[in-house]
Amino acid sequence: MFDGWDLVSETSKRAPTFQLVHIGGRRFAVDSQAVIATADPLATTHVPGTPAWVRGVVLWEGQVVPVLSAAKRLGLVALTATTPSQLLELKVRGEPFFIEIESLGEVIAAVNFEACDERLLLGFVALADEMIPILDLAAVTDISDEGVSQ
Questions:
Q1: Where do the domains of the chain lie?
Q2: Alpha-carbon span 18 to 1, nearest angstrom
Q3: pTM of the entire structure?
């Protein structure tokens, strides 16, 4: 999994790749190595005492998997019942998670990037004339952190 800004090592000569996703009306990048699959929205079971951005949990392939509202976590307008959405299945720190996304974009290589100091972001990757924020999936999926919520 992408874990730093030493993007092109002498041995690999390959830049990491990122999956583009739309969340809260904005485009973000996530480490493509963490992406497992997409799924249609699932009915969740609410878990009392969790942050507002945790939608609940689902039973998925024999495991209880948290479903997170990435839009709420990032302080953006959350998806509504009428907004078409998908779930993006991720494996972060060896654990499965679903995050709600509006749509899935292309996979891009990080050849131009900029580090940042934001709590939920690793940095930005350049695509044409746009700087796309790269989500720090470990921070975004940290349920023990109350974080941003609406």
A1: 17-140
A2: 11
A3: 0.82
**8-state DSSP, 33:** G
Q: Encode pLDDT of 51-72 as tens digits.
A: 999 999 999 999 999 999 999 9
Query: Are 115 and 122 spatial neighbours (Cβ–Cβ below 8 Å)?
Result: yes
Bridge partners of 103? 22
Residue-wise pLDDT tens digits, 104-143: 999 998 777 777 778 899 999 988 888 999 999 999 999 8
CA angle, residues 17, 40, 16, in degrees to nearest 5? 5
Yes or no: say if 41 and 87 are a contact pair by the CB < 8 Å rule.
yes
Q: Which residues contact 50 (CB under 8 A, 6 or more apart)?
A: 143
Beta pairing, strands 63-68 & 54-60 = antiparallel
Q: How far from the centroid of its chain's Cα atoms is residue 22's Cα?
A: 10
Superfamily of domain 17-140 in CATH is CheA-289, Domain 4 (2.40.50.180)
Measured between alpha carbons, how far is 83 from 31 in angstroms, rounded to an integer?
Answer: 25
Alpha helix ranges (H) inside the chain: 70-73, 137-140
41 closest CA partner among 106, 104, 107, 99: 99
